[in-house]
Amino acid sequence: MKITVFSGSHKGREGNTLIMVEEFLKGAEEAGAETENIFLIEKNIGYCKGKFECWLKTPGMCTMRDDMDDLLPAFMASDIAVFACPVYFDNVPAVMKNFIDRLAPVLLPHFEEDERGEYRHAKRYEKFPKIAVISNAGLPGQTNFEVESLFFRRLARTFHTELVAEIYREEGEIFRGKSNIILKPLLGKYKKLLRCAGREIVENQKLSEKVVRELEKQIVPASLYIKFGNEEWDRLCEQNRVD
Ligand SMILES: Cc1cc2nc3c(=O)[nH]c(=O)nc-3n(C[C@H](O)[C@H](O)[C@H](O)COP(=O)(O)O)c2cc1C
């Protein structure tokens, strides 16, 4: 099984998202998957021009030449494509949305009705990768993922596929406290769960309810996260100000 992660943090290899992705992939590899983690921010991906040239002029292929020449086949060759990113203003970051817009060539122009009586574009290929989401949000609360969750469910429908896993970590800045004596064991436990999720996705193509429930548990109480978070912001503002 091939699992490709399309990592959409604008911080790339410095991001909190990467910590989640690495643990998930360790579990997937333990269960025998071949994995790849692609940092979208390091790629040259132009904006979709919105002219449907990938449907009209060069069917199945964009007319722009950039890194999507490799990324689109990498997406289609995956058994599971993982969209990994932080929440930016309740949604996916621009680099992730830009990548998703450029997946348009995998569809056909023609409209069709789906099994729920809604409409979408027909598929160009028989087999599409299943999709999964890994995301983290700086604020406490699972409600921070409401928009992303709806978006990826709709995207799975649009791409004629299935959303097999949603892993959402509230209080995502907690990863920056990885050497904190109190947080370290709590993060260790969470990382173990992520590895378990990686194994489950390979073995069962879905996550167990137990793992989802555990993954969604708050790691520290919101009141503490807010208190220490605000103290950290004060310290960082002081340290970084350019007068
Ligand atoms: C422009 C911007 C918008 C953000 N919007 C939200 C938001 O709406 N809700 C939230 O909980 N966190 C928000 N955050 C915080 C990030 O989700 C958080 O810092 C996350 O841990 C960053 O992940 P990364 O290190 O992988 O980039 C935002 C951050 C940025 C830079």
Average residue-wise pLDDT: 97
Please state the second-level CATH architecture: 3-Layer(aba) Sandwich
Strand content: 15-25%
Taken in chain order, the helices and strands follow as: EHEHHEHEEEHEHHH
Span from first to last CA? Answer: 54 Å
Note the main sheet.
Answer: 5 strands, parallel
Count the beta strands: 7
CATH topology: Rossmann fold
Q: What hetero molecules are bound to the protein chains?
A: flavin mononucleotide
CATH class: Alpha Beta
Q: Low-confidence parts, pLDDT < 50 over ≥5 residues?
A: none
The named CATH superfamily? Flavodoxin domain
* Portion of residues within helices: 25-40%
How large is the count of helical segments? 8
Strand adjacency order, main sheet = 2-1-3-6-7
Query: Radius of gyration over alpha carbons?
Result: 19 Å
**How many structural domains?**
1
The helix/strand class is: alpha/beta
What is the molecular shape?
globular
Give a short summary of the structure.
This protein has 243 residues and is an alpha/beta fold. It is built from eight helices and seven strands. It has a five-stranded parallel sheet with strand order 2-1-3-6-7, sandwiched between helices. Strands 4-5 form a two-stranded antiparallel ribbon.
What does this structure look like?
One of its GO terms (molecular function) is oxidoreductase activity. InterPro entries: Flavoprotein-like_sf, FMN_Rdtase-like_dom, ISF_SsuE-like. Keywords: Flavoprotein, FMN. Helices cover 40% and strands 19% of the residues. The protein has helices at residues 16-30, 53-56, 68-76, 94-101, 146-158, 183-204, 209-215, 222-240; strands spanning 2-7, 34-39, 80-86, 107-113, 119-123, 130-136, 163-169. The radius of gyration is 19 Å and the shape is globular. By secondary structure, the chain is of the alpha/beta class. It has a single domain (2-240), classed as Flavodoxin domain (Rossmann fold). The longest helix is centred in the C-terminal third of the chain and has 22 residues, at 183-204. It has a five-stranded parallel beta sheet with strand order 2-1-3-6-7, with helices on both faces. The structure holds flavin mononucleotide.
